[in-house]
Amino acid sequence: MPKRSLSFARGILVVLGVFVATAAAYAGVQFGRGNFHEVVAGELYRSGQPRGGDIDRYVHDYGIKSVLNLRGANPDKRWYRDEMAAISRNGLAHADLALKADRALDDETVSQLFALFASLPKPLLIHCDGGADRTGLASALYLAWVKHADEWSAELQLSILYGHIGLPLTHGWAMSTTFERLEPRLGYPNS
After folding, report:
1. Domain definitions of the chain by residue range
2. Which of 64, 119, 144, 163 stands 20 to 30 A from 12 (CA)?
3. Contact between 104 and 174 (Cβ < 8 Å)
4. Taking the model in full, what pTM does it have?
5. pLDDT by residue (tens digit) across 113-141?
6. Confidence (pLDDT) at 4
7. What is the distance between the alpha carbons of residues 156 and 22, in angstroms, rounded to a whole number?
8. Is the Cα dihedral 29, 149, 43, 69 positive or negative?
């Protein structure tokens, strides 16, 4: 291989390495702080699984009034019991909806999600385990269905900014394809 081509290849590898290292560092910071983000100020927040005093802090700092758990009811798991204790302690409304990041949502589940958006008191905290895939889809659908946000703003909730990798064969790909399938129902052109 000519010296110039080898130099170019090394340059590309360095750029890719810096990109991967930066993305990994960003993801580490996000997941280290619970992947908590404001979606709509005073109305909707998203996170990974709340731990320790997270719910207490979210209630204090953001006025959270309800929690939507996208992992489904898991009364035999400590994380769920801890979450329910914090919800009870803070007098919050709560709902469980079992979604799987690797399974597209059917229309009935989407309708259940929309009904929960309408019925749960705001500000609402939506969470799954990592706060990337299921929570990303729910946040995107909230922006599209409830707030009538533009397509780009809604789809941004399903992005690497929150840890979602919307590529075929990835764990959360079904969440991306669900949003794409629902675009006409949401008033967006299906691209």
Report:
1. 1-32, 34-186
2. 163
3. yes
4. 0.84
5. 999 999 999 999 999 999 999 999 999 99
6. 66
7. 19
8. negative
